[in-house]
Amino acid sequence: MSATKNPQANTAPLPRDVADAYVDELIALDPITGTFLGVKESHRRLPDTSPEGQEALARLARTTLARLDEAERGPGAESEIERRCGRLLRERLTAQLAVHEADEGLRAVGNLHTVPHQVREIFTVTPTDTEEDWAAVTDRLRAVPAAYEGYRASLELGLERKLFAGPRPTGTFIGQLTQWAGPGGADGRGWFEDFAATGPDALRAELDAAARGATAAVVALRDWMRDVYAPAVEGSSDIVGRERYARLSRECNGADLDFDEAYAYGWAEFHRLLGEMRSEAEKILPGAATPWVALAHLDEHGTHIEGVEETRVWLQELMDEAIRELDGTHFELAERVRTVESRIAPPGGAAAPYYTGPSEDFSRPGRTWLPTMGETRFPVYDLVSTWYHEGVPGHHLQLAQWAHVAADLSRYQATVGIVSANAEGWALYAERLMDELGFLGDPERRLGYLDAQMTRALRVIVDIGMHLELDIPADSPFHPGERWTPDLAQEFYDAHCSRPTEYVESEMTRYLTIPGQAIGYKLGERAWLLGRENARRRHGDAFDAKAWHMAALSQGSLGLDDLVDELSAL
After folding, report:
1. With 80 as the cut, is the pLDDT of residue 8 above it?
2. What is the pLDDT of the chain when averaged over all its residues?
3. Could you tell me the sign of the dihedral formed by the alpha carbons of 464, 469, 470, 473, in that order?
4. Strand order of the sheet with strand 354-356?
5. Residue 2: which pLDDT band, with cuts at 50, 70 and 90?
6. Residues 406, 390 contacting (CB under 8 angstroms)
7. What tens digit of pLDDT does each residue of 177-192 get?
8. From the centroid of its chain, how far is CA 521?
């Protein structure tokens, strides 16, 4: 168990003690989480992904909530730091239990964040520096078949209970499994075998055998998904409806949102951003019919980085520059927070860039990942604000700072208690901050930033619109008065962003896979901006942006219900 937060060792646990005990017990059940946190004992294992494994996690959540009830009645629980931790723990576990009890885990199929994706991704952050590390990797590879079989058992139970995933996420997932399996299928060289090929010669036979077993598990799951699951879910709906959407959105956003208000806000942002984009596009290509014509012009004639490795290095330099410029002026960064690595993403995942946080002891630094999708030439307009989002001052500064101050919070608040909308909202706020500070003064970079902002407004519109089957407003430039469908949503999205077709398709599948998650970027950004504005009004001329940023980044995770209040009080 983690070190107690309670200074009186013989008294009852406080909420932070309960939260940290939960992390310890969670790691025992979920070694994937353990590896992300840098727990060495986790690196050899994978979790029980069967229905029984899901229920074990739910039992832990229920037990922890009962412990929290008792802890919150004890002396010392009323302090601000204990109250904040207890509130987060209760909100997170309650939201997760609601999703579990609705059996959502029995139909979790999509193009990212499913069990097979997590199993594959964890190998990219498992240590591989020594022969001992690779011995642990070998054991973890041997565990892949059981993890995939447990996932399949969960989906089989879902079929029995008539709980179906959507056909589109199912088809996309089957395609991903085929890519992971490799061209030779069970006897060929798949993703796991490519990964194992870089291991030491001393373990070659064991690594190869374990990797072949993992690939065989991928093929077996792919064949079952194709031959059994896909026919069974054919004709089911890709959209979830208002009741499921509210439950899933709560888990992602930490708030019971007013979806009609949020939908209207998304449209208001769409119109505002469209006006700004037209102004910037005129500077780049005078007379351009739309901003996306100007962006297409930049694809051909704008500033580019040539070469995959050259792009990785350029992105590293961009983040290093941001740290140099921002540290001491708008942030006060600890030395270990100043380190972040640029990486190229392994093939076979989603098309969007992403970030993985540091281990708790920072032995593994935070990393940004660029999926190349087979490309070798990358336009600068499409990279800059994205890396301010994923790296610095976005995800990296927040999540690394949480890890840095974990001892002053709780382990839970700094790690597994993360609320998606809080983190994504900060990262989108970080993009806007860089615009406010003049880092996007060049028309190419600023139009790229506005295009990225527009995609987040589109997410609010289409994610809420299609899952709730809302009407398109009368003042929309696109199909006014019609009711949203996934096909209309993709057409609308494609017409109002610069991304290639495969990216748009991946994004739409993502929204159908994780309903309610994509809206957290724009709604989270709104919460961060409102909290800052309230604090600025309260302090007047004495408002210190650097002090506010560091206090905001040092309070750990919060749901959107609480975020504005806490930010406003800083």
Report:
1. no
2. 95
3. positive
4. 340-344, 366-370, 354-356
5. very low
6. no
7. 999 999 864 456 899 9
8. 10
- According to DSSP H, which parts of 38-130 are helical? 51-71, 80-101, 115-122
| Sequence letter at residue 87 | R
- CA 456 from chain centre, in angstroms, equals 14
Tokens for 408, please give them.
């002053």
* DSSP states of 132-175: HHHHHHHHHHHHHHHHHHHHHHHHHHHHHTT----HHHHHHHHH
Tokens found for residue 206:
């064991």
Q: What is the pLDDT of residues 189-236, one digit of tens each?
A: 899 999 999 999 999 999 999 999 999 999 999 999 999 999 999 999
Residue spans per domain, the chain: 15-239, 248-521
166-181 residues labelled b (16+ CB within 10 A) or e (exposed): bbbbbbbbbebbbebb
Q: What is the pLDDT of residues 94-122, one digit of tens each?
A: 999 999 999 999 999 999 899 999 999 99
Residue 80 burial (CB < 10 Å; 0-12/13-18/19+)?
exposed
Judged against a pLDDT cut of 50, whether residue 131 lies above it is answered with yes
SS3 label, residue 334: coil
Nearest Cα neighbor of 498 from 207, 291, 191, 281 is 291
The two tokens of residue 310 are 């050259």
Q: Two tokens at 544? A: 């210190």
Chain centroid to CA 264: 25
SS3 of the chain: helix, strand, coil, percent, to 5? 65, 5, 30
3-state secondary structure of 393: coil
